[in-house]
Each structure stands twice: as C-alpha cells, then as structure tokens.
C-alpha cells in the first residue's frame, strides 16, 4: 500500500520581495520562515528554513550569511556562527541542532511554501 503526501502550497510573498543572495523573513501560520534566494546557484535556488536559531531561541537566521562549506550551501547564524545546511537544516558543528525546512517554489511571481508535509 502506498502513501500519498498531501500538502497545500501557500503563497507567502511575491518574487520581487526576495533579495538576491540574501534572506528575507515571512510569516507562515504564526511562524517566522527565512527564505533564501540564490538565483545563480546550480539546481535549486530557493530555500525555506526556520528563522529561529535553535541555540539562542532568537529569530535571526534570516539575517545570516550564506556560504559554501565543502560543497554544502549553508547559512551561518549571526549570533553563535553555527552553520546550517540549507537543503535539510542540519547543523555542521552541532548535529543535535537543526532548523525546520519547508518545500518552497516559485509559481509565476508568487513564492509558495508547502504546508501539511
């Protein structure tokens, strides 16, 4: 028996609200989500991760610096400088820390995040 993932795509902002090679923060069901738009990256170029730094509990991830460590796209937390992989939210320095990630896409001029995943 196969299971089907059912989810709903919700618009959270317009493409014009994104900042190239940087983060912006949007609200999704009362949570802050950091969006990172990397238009020149090969393959996937839009990421959605939790804006809350798991070490400090402060909503700052959207202000972090984007980097590449050993071929992994990462975001560095502005407070404690730990690095989180954009594709799965895992922390390079502290494996017990993790950011929630959401599927995200551009649909025309809308940025949409999948909920119910």
TrEMBL record:
Stored CDD domains: Rieske_NirD
GO biological process: nitrate assimilation
Cross-referenced Gene3D superfamilies: Rieske [2Fe-2S] iron-sulphur domain
UniProt xrefs under PROSITE patterns: NIRD, RIESKE
Pfam families: Rieske_2
Source organism superkingdom: Bacteria
Keyword Iron-sulfur: yes
Domain Rieske: 10-113
Claim: Lyase is one of the keywords in the record: no
Protein name, entry field: Nitrite reductase
Organism from which the protein derives: Pseudomonas syringae
């Amino acid at each position: 028996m196969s299971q089907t993932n059912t989810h709903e795509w919700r618009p959270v902002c317009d493409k014009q609200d994104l900042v190239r090679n940087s983060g912006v923060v949007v609200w999704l069901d009362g949570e802050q989500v950091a969006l990172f738009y990397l238009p020149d990256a090969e393959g996937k170029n839009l990421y959605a991760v939790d804006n809350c730094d798991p070490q400090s509990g402060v909503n700052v991830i959207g202000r972090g610096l984007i980097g590449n460590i050993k071929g992994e796209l990462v975001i560095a937390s502005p407070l404690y400088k730990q690095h989180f992989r954009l594709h799965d939210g895992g922390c390079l320095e502290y494996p017990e820390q993790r950011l929630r990630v959401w599927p995200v896409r551009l649909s025309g001029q809308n940025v949409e995040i999948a909920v119910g995943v």
